[in-house]
Structure formats: structure tokens, C-alpha cells
Amino acid sequence: MNWLDGTVFVTGATGFIGGRVCERLVQAGARRVRALVHSTHRAARIGRLPIELCPGDLLEIDSLRQALADSTVVIHCGVGNARGIVRGTENLLSACREGTVKRFVHMSTAAVYGLTPPPGSETEDAPLRLTGDGYCDNKGRAEGAVLRAGQQGLQVVILRPSIVYGPYSSWSTRLIKDLREHRVALIDEGKGACNTVYVDNLVDAIFASIENDRAVGNIFFITDGEAITWGDFIRAHMAMLEYKEELPEVSKQEALAYYKDRPGVVAGSVKAAGRILRSRELRQLLLQIPVAERTLTAVWGRMQSLPETRQQKIRSRVGVLPKSFGPSKNGRFIPDEIALATQTASVFFSIEKAKRILDYRPRIPFTQGAALVEQWLRFANYL
Predict the structure, then answer these.
(1) E-assigned strands of the chain?
(2) What is the pLDDT along the chain (383 residues), one digit of tens a residue?
């Protein structure tokens, strides 16, 4: 039986990748698409599609058992933060094994090798190791849960994209905003490996993973297959904006020195505490205290392992903490530590395995993908 004749279950359907998966499934003629959603008010993009919106939560296994019902294919694009990544994936796998699911496609990430993948991680057989980053490490642990489910009889495939861009992608919307606010700098002349993949190329790989039985039990890097640098990516968005100014340049060593010279946790906390005690904007200024910032980050990570209903209750009581701006030195923008780690990578991931087994061929090159993004950004009034 053609897999499009069965029920295809998509998690993370209200997100960027999952939303496009739902659109492409409808375009491909899938007879029944079921999308897991936390709440319908987040489902405006997919709500116009002839698909079933099914309430549920990856952290509540009973809701997953009911939502999966007669599904034969699962495309797991749901994420979450910290502990929620592993727990949600384990819950979904457990519900799949109890039901009628035959093929499970897991959306992982090349970041399982860290925000700055080390040389030697160009191919899928490079061993994983803990990096100290909660997101990266837990995505790696989630892969382990998927592989164990595969050993227990579930047909599993793991995909590892890197920088997924396209309409609705925050990589583009955030970059356009930061360029307007002069909050972008080229790190080491923008030579870092970007490893882009246009979202439709990724969806092609998802469909190939379902259709090809040779894919079962395998892990695949998925990129556009081009050596696109961060300089290429940023300059493409500058062209969309007709951005005429030259971007400031920062070396990796300069940025590392800046962070090294910042006050330590204790000294910085004591220095900042006086300012906060005199301020009425306590919650915002708490983020300036290293101890408080780390505590709040830990609390936030733990909260992600709670069901969505409990998270909403907590948010309604304490409010949402605003994101603080990145650092600057003498009025000069210094990229934050995540941007520094991401944009100084040197590894370009190989897609030879995906080509060989999935017959994956990226249809949309970067130049065309950037043009499509620009069209959407203009349509959505970002430009």
C-alpha cells in the first residue's frame, strides 16, 4: 500500500518545519494527515489545510496514545527544550510501539555534535559525545532512544539537518531584524561553515526516508550540498534589505577575550545586585546578574519538561521574561556566545550517504532558496 493512503501523523506541526511538512503532504495527495497541536490558536498556518488538528502533548503519553490512533507513519518534528526533548521523544516512541505505526522519521539535528562541530564529524558515523549544551546533548540522547526503538522492531530513520531556512524561518526573520538594528557582525570574515538546507529539500529527504526501505535504521545528514558560509548567508539577506553599510568584523579571539574579561559569577553578581535593588524593573534587571541568569536558565530548562498546560499556568503567574540584548564593547556590537560558537564552525557535513541510500538530490540551490525567502519576506511585510 502507498504510504500516502494511510494516516500520517506529524508532531511539531505548528512550527516552521512541521508546518511545511503538512503543506507538502497535502500537495502530495496524502489522504489523511493528522497534526499534533498543543492549542489551536498556534495553528493558523496549517488550520487552512484539509488536515486533522489533534490536541495533545508530547509530555503527556495518554494524549499521544489517543492522537496516534490508526497512524502508520510518524514524522517527529516536535522539539521542546532541555529535558522535554528526550522525554517527549520517549513518550512518542512508546505510544508508537503500542499502536499501528510502521515507519518513524525522527527530525534530529547536526548540532548533536555541538554548536561548533569538531573536525572529524563530517560523516554520520562519527561518535557522539557530550558537549555541555543542553539542547545539543539532549537531541543526541533522543537519537539514542529512537535507535533503541528501532532495535525493538519499529522502522526508524533519523535525519540531521543543520541551518534550515525558508519561508517562516526565524533564521531569516531574526537576521533581517538584527541587520536593521545594526546588531550583526561578521565573525572571522564570515568564513564559518553554515550548512544550509532549504526547507523543501529537507521535506524531500523526509519523503524519501518513508518511501525507501533501505533507509530504515540509518542516520543521514541533510544539507543543500553546497559549501555555504555564514558570510554568504548574511550577505544574501543584506542584499534583500539593500543594506549599503559595511558590516563590522570581529575575530573569534577578540570575542573570546571579551567574554573572558567579563566579571565572574560572584563578583559580577555583587556588583549588579546594588543596581537591581534600587530598580523598579526587577525582573528585567535580574538577567544582568550572572547567578540569577544561570538560575533562571536552569529553571526555564526544567519547566520545558512539564506538560504544556502546566507551563501556561506558570507563565500566567510570573509572566514571560524578555530576551536581553547581546553585549557590546565601547559601543561596538559583539556577537553573543551562541552566535560565536555557531558561526565559527569549520565542518561541512557530507550528504553522500543520503545521496547513495535515499537518492537524495537537493532540488533548490542556495541562490534560488534565497530568492524564494525574499519573495516571502516581502509578502509577509518583513521587507
Answers:
(1) 7-11, 32-37, 52-55, 73-76, 103-107, 155-161, 163-165, 186-187, 196-198, 219-222, 249-250, 328-329, 332-333
(2) 699 999 999 999 999 999 999 999 999 999 999 999 987 778 889 999 999 999 999 999 999 999 998 999 999 999 876 668 999 999 999 999 999 999 999 999 999 999 999 999 999 999 999 999 999 999 999 999 999 999 999 999 999 999 999 999 999 999 999 999 999 999 999 999 999 999 999 999 999 999 999 999 999 999 999 999 999 999 999 999 998 888 999 999 998 988 887 655 444 454 555 444 444 454 445 555 555 555 655 555 555 555 555 555 554 444 444 444 456 656 668 888 899 999 999 999 999 999 999 999 999 999 999 999 999 999 999 99
CATH 3.40.50.720 fits 3-167+189-226+346-363, yes or no: yes
Helical spans, DSSP H, in 115-264:
134-151, 170-180, 199-211, 230-241, 252-261
Chain length of the chain = 383
Q: What is the pTM of this model?
A: 0.84
CATH 3.40.50.720 residue window(s) in the chain = 3-167+189-226+346-363
- Grid cell at residue 238: 543584506
